[in-house]
Amino acid sequence: MLLNLGDFREDYNRDELLESQAEKDPFQQFARWFKTAVQAEIPEPNAMVLATSTTSGRPSARVVLLKEVESESFVFYTNYESRKGQEMAENPHAALVFNWLELHRQIRVEGLIEKVPATMSTEYFQSRPKGSQIGAWASPQSQVIPRREILEEQVRELNAEYSDAEKLPRPEHWGGYRLRPHTVEFWQGRTSRLHDRLLYTLAGPGAWVISRLAP
């Protein structure tokens, strides 16, 4: 055995999640919990695991940053030619996980992916720090490169080319996605591992059914 982790235990006793207290809409419930995470000064509370898969069911996951919550979707941005971009193009089914350990809370989101309009991607891209804009141009994300110096040289060349510009044009291979959920689960840790789990299931446009799941 390389590592024995059986003694790592955490007693969850911070809060509860009851149907009588929950919002009727999962986006409102998310906003409430996110505000609490910000107030608790959790580092990067908008960090989320994005899980995608190929059409054959081979999964992959990584942490990305949520950038906007709309009335019916969660929005994030990335390189369209990355592994996740290619998988989302093949298979639009995806999942998100927010894990706020300090609050003993987790949110799971499952739904369908679509690209945001190009104008929306451009507006967000040009609002980023200039260094991040240059990085998006310089990096062939998820591709094998022989050494880091190639990226650094690309960055130097782009800095020279756009030395007088505050904003760069958006690369065609970079932009936003929105995930439109059909289920959202809120998990609150409780004592003795009898956790609270409320599942919101989309029953129609703007209509959600709330169910309690056994822990």
TrEMBL record:
Cofactor-binding details, from the entry: Binds 1 FMN per subunit.
Keyword Repressor found: no
Protein name per its UniProtKB record: Pyridoxine/pyridoxamine 5'-phosphate oxidase
Classification of source organism: Bacteria, Pseudomonadati, Bacteroidota, Saprospiria, Saprospirales
Organism, scientific name: Flavilitoribacter nigricans (strain ATCC 23147 / DSM 23189 / NBRC 102662 / NCIMB 1420 / SS-2)
Subunit organization: Homodimer.
UniProt keyword Secreted present: no
Top EC class of this enzyme: oxidoreductase
Gene: pdxH
Cofactor: FMN
Domain spans labelled Pyridoxamine 5'-phosphate oxidase N-terminal: 35-158
